[in-house]
């Protein structure tokens, strides 16, 4: 299971500055196929600089959710650290 990319990333407006909400389409490489699945995710900055990521997969593929969620969290954290998410 691998996350290839996040497409059409849009930031949802919010009043709380330490919580960022996004919508995107995740391109996932499963063992048998490559699929696109819409997701919503939230990045919350903790008081000590730690980031907590919550993911909602809107169209669950026929694959266990735990590996997908783990791979998405790692990918989102990486692109956030690189500064490629919309502000």
Strand content: over 45%
Gross morphology is: globular
Q: Taking Cα atoms only, what radius of gyration do you get, to the nearest Å? A: 13 Å
Number of DSSP E strands: 4
Order of helix and strand elements from N to C terminus? EEEEH
Helix tally equals 1
- Fraction in helix: 10-25%
Q: Which structural class do the helices and strands define?
A: alpha+beta
Largest sheet: 4 strands, antiparallel
Major sheet strand order: 1-2-3-4
Kindly report the average pLDDT value.
Answer: 93
Alpha carbon gap, first and last residue: 28 Å
Q: Indicate the low-confidence ranges by residue numbers.
A: none
What does this structure look like?
This protein is α+β, with helices and mostly antiparallel strands and 87 residues long. The protein is 21% helix and 47% strand. It has 1 helix and 4 strands; from the N terminus they run ββββα. It has a 4-stranded antiparallel sheet with strand order 1-2-3-4. The longest helix has 18 residues, at 65-82. The model has no long low-confidence stretch (mean pLDDT 93).
